[in-house]
Specification:
Blueprint lengths: L35 H5 L3 H7 L12 H6 L26 H7 L2 H25 L5 E2 L6 H16 L8 E2 L2 H30 L5 E3 L3 E6 L2 E10 L5 E16 L2 E9 L5 E4 L3 E8 L10 H6 L3 E10 L4 E10 L3 E3 L1 E3 L3 E5 L2 E4 L7 E3 L10
Parallel strand pairs: 4-12
Antiparallel strand pairs: 1-2, 3-5, 4-5, 5-9, 6-7, 6-8, 6-10, 10-11, 13-16, 14-15
Length: about 375
C-alpha cells in the first residue's frame, strides 16, 4: 500500500471479516504469553526455522517488548500496536501534527466549533462591558443584546463591519482590538492548515482481508494482494515482507525477524491491482512449516510499502500485517478482472478479498 502518531494512544486493532476458507484457530498461549506448543515442545519444523539465520538488525520494537507481547506488532491499518506511558500531556502535545493528521470530518467540526466558540466568548465580553459600551444596539432584553453582541463579534472577527454598531467605551475598543488580532491569527492558521492538508500526499492502499497459502508453480507460495483506492497514480512501488515469530534459542523464547523474498518486490507502474508472491522453496524461512507450527509460533508477517505519488512527486508509505489466523491455507484468490473494451481494462475491487479453495502441492512440506 502506498501511504504516509499527543501522548501516543493505544490504537485499536482493525478487525477483519472471517474468510470463507477455514483459518487456523487462535494460538494457545501460556501465562507469559508464549505459545505453549512452542515453549514446551517445538516441532521439527519450528526447530528447523530456529536454526535459520534471522536478519541481524534492530527493527525498532525492542527485543524484550517484541518477545513478551502476545499481541500483533502492526495493526491492519498500519498503526503500531504500541503505547508509551509516562509522557506528560504537555510534553507530548503536538498540535500541528494532530491537526494535519486528524480525519477531515473531525477537522471540519473543530474548525466550525472553534469559530463559534471564539465569537461567543467575545460576545459575552462585549455584554460585560456594560450599557453604552456599544453604540447602535437595538436589543431590549439580555438575550436580544447578547445576540446582537454575537453578530457584532462575528463582523469584527471577519473584518466585515456594517457600520451600525460601533464601540464607544475604552473597554469595548480594547476588546475589539484583541478580537481583531485573534481573528487575523485564526484565519491565517486555518487557511494554512487547510492548504497543508490538501498538499500532503497520502496513499490509500487497500490490502486483501486475508493472505493465502496457494499452489504456485508446483510448490506453495504466500500471497496477498493490494490495490490503490485513489484515482491518482503511484509509480516505482516497492514492497518488503518480514516474518516475525517466536522461537527458542539457548533455552529462551524470543522473537526473531526473517526477511521474506518476493518474486517481484518492485513495479514501475501500479494502475490496477498487484498480487505479492513469496515462493516457499527451500530457501524460504517458511519452508517445512505446517499450519500448527506457523500458529504455535505466533507468526506475524509485516508489510512495508513505499511509492512515489505522481501528482505530488513525493514519497508515500503504507504498512500492514497478517497474523497467523489471517492466513488462509489451501486457498487462492478469485479473479477480479472485469474484462476490457475500447475504454480499457477493468477490475472489480469489490472482489479483492474473495478467495477460493485450492489444493496445495502434495510434495510441499508446508501443507
Amino acid at each position: 500500500m502506498a501511504e504516509n502518531q499527543r501522548p501516543v494512544e493505544n490504537p485499536t486493532p482493525v478487525e477483519t471479516p472471517t474468510p470463507r476458507i477455514a483459518s487456523p484457530s487462535p494460538a494457545i498461549t501460556s501465562d507469559a504469553g508464549v505459545p505453549r506448543a512452542l515453549a514446551k515442545d517445538p516441532s521439527p519444523a519450528a526447530q528447523k526455522l530456529s536454526t535459520s539465520k534471522p536478519e541481524d538488525r534492530d527493527w525498532g520494537f525492542g527485543a524484550k517488548v517484541a518477545s513478551e507481547t502476545p499481541q500483533r506488532l502492526v495493526n491492519r491499518d498500519g498503526s503500531f500496536n504500541m503505547r508509551r506511558l509516562g509522557l506528560s500531556a504537555l510534553g507530548a502535545l503536538s498540535p500541528y501534527h494532530a491537526l494535519i493528521t486528524m480525519p477531515w470530518p473531525r477537522y471540519a467540526l473543530l474548525l466550525i466549533s472553534s469559530y463559534f466558540t471564539i465569537n461567543a466568548v467575545f460576545a459575552v465580553g462585549y455584554l460585560l462591558c456594560g450599557d453604552g459600551a456599544l453604540q447602535g444596539t437595538l436589543g431590549q432584553t439580555t438575550g436580544e443584546k447578547l445576540l446582537e453582541m454575537f453578530f457584532f463579534s462575528i463582523q469584527t472577527f471577519t473584518t466585515v463591519g456594517y457600520g451600525r454598531i460601533n464601540p464607544m467605551s475604552l473597554a469595548a475598543n480594547l476588546l475589539v482590538s484583541v478580537q481583531f488580532l485573534v481573528g487575523f491569527l485564526w484565519s491565517a492558521l486555518s487557511t494554512g492548515l487547510f492548504f497543508a492538508r490538501f498538499s500532503r500526499p497520502q496513499a490509500k492502499i487497500l490490502f486483501s482481508d486475508h493472505a493465502v497459502l496457494a499452489p504456485y508453480r508446483s510448490i506453495t507460495a504466500f500471497m496477498f494482494r493490494i490495490v490503490n483506492k485513489r484515482q491518482n497514480e503511484l509509480i516505482d512501488v516497492n514492497v518488503s515482507l518480514t516474518l516475525n515469530r517466536l522461537e527458542i534459542k539457548d533455552g529462551k523464547t524470543q522473537r526473531a525477524f526473517y526477511p521474506l523474498t518476493l518474486e517481484r518486490d518492485r513495479v514501475q507502474f501500479f494502475p490496477l491491482h498487484w498480487v505479492l508472491v513469496h515462493p516457499i522453496d527451500e530457501s524460504s524461512p517458511l519452508y517445512g512449516f505446517s499450519r500448527e507450527a506457523f500458529e504455535s509460533a505466533d507468526s506475524e508477517i509485516l508489510i512495508s510499502l513505499q511509492a512515489t505519488d505522481e501528482t505530488f512527486s513525493q514519497t508515500v508509505y503504507a504498512r500492514s500485517s497478517y497474523k497467523h489466523n489471517e492466513v488462509a491455507w489451501g486457498a487462492k484468490f478469485s479473479n477480479i478482472f472485469a474484462g476490457g473494451d475500447q475504454s480499457g481494462m477493468s477490475i472489480d475491487i469489490r472482489r479483492l478479498h474473495d478467495i477460493e479453495q485450492a489444493d496445495l502441492a502434495p510434495q510441499n512440506p508446508a501443507k
